[in-house]
Amino acid sequence: MKKHPTLTVDQATLIAAARDASARAYAPYSKFHVGAALAFADGSVVTGANVENASYGLALCAETVAVSKAMADGVRGGLMAVAVIGGAPGEDGAASPGAAPVTPCGRCRQVLNEIAQLGGTDPVVWSLGADSVVELRLSQLLPHAFGPANLS
Q1: Buried-state track 104-127, b at ≥16 Cβ within 10 A, e below 16
Q2: Where would you tag: which of 5, 57, 92, 100 has the fewest CB atoms within 10 A of its CB?
Q3: What residue spans of the chain are helical by DSSP H?
Q4: pLDDT at position 76, please?
Q5: Which CATH superfamily is domain 11-146 in?
Q6: CA separation for the pair 140, 60 (Å, rounded)
Q7: What is the mean pLDDT of residues 105-118?
Q8: Taking a C-beta distance cutoff of 8 angstroms, is the pair 79, 114 a contact?
Q9: Distance between CA atoms of 60 and 58, rounded to whole angstroms?
Q10: What is the distance between the alpha carbons of residues 79 and 82, in angstroms, rounded to a whole number?
């Protein structure tokens, strides 16, 4: 059963961390900056920004970068919340969200699911648009997910 842990970071703080991360995006081709922030049960917040590549298929999404950073730092599970923002960079380099909120792509949903399943959690995902924040559980974005438990 997936747990809905108690959040130690509020929505506004996590969205601000994602926005700050988006300012560090490397997006010379699309000019679309994405930032992600992950909140964990231990109170830590890990951020990531998209990294494009001239060979487009080698680009890294912000969520995947953040999960990779967390895993490299030894964080295995306890994912409580995710915030994602994407859009054209403003004067400060941070994403200015478009009208429609940006949700994690399919690949990122699977990557997020891996770290969530390690802790048995179903994190809330906040996707920021120009005038709204969409709030969904990861299980809503990726129903019937495949993960570590399926390999046992």
Answers
A1: beeebbebbbbbbbbbebbbbbbb
A2: 57
A3: 11-22, 62-72, 106-119, 138-141
A4: 86
A5: Cytidine Deaminase, domain 2 (3.40.140.10)
A6: 23
A7: 96
A8: no
A9: 7
A10: 8
Q: Which helix (H) or strand (E) holds 30?
A: none
Per the prediction, the chain carries an average pLDDT of 94
Give whole-number Cα distances, 117 to 97, 122, 142, in Å: 29, 8, 12
- Mean pLDDT over 121-140 rounds to 96
Residues 34-69 have pLDDT tens digits of 999 999 999 999 999 999 999 999 999 999 999 999
Q: Which residues are catalytic?
A: 63
In this prediction, residue 8 carries a pLDDT of 77
Of 35, 17, 144, 8, nearest to 96 by C-alpha is: 35
* The total number of residues written for the chain in this structure: 152
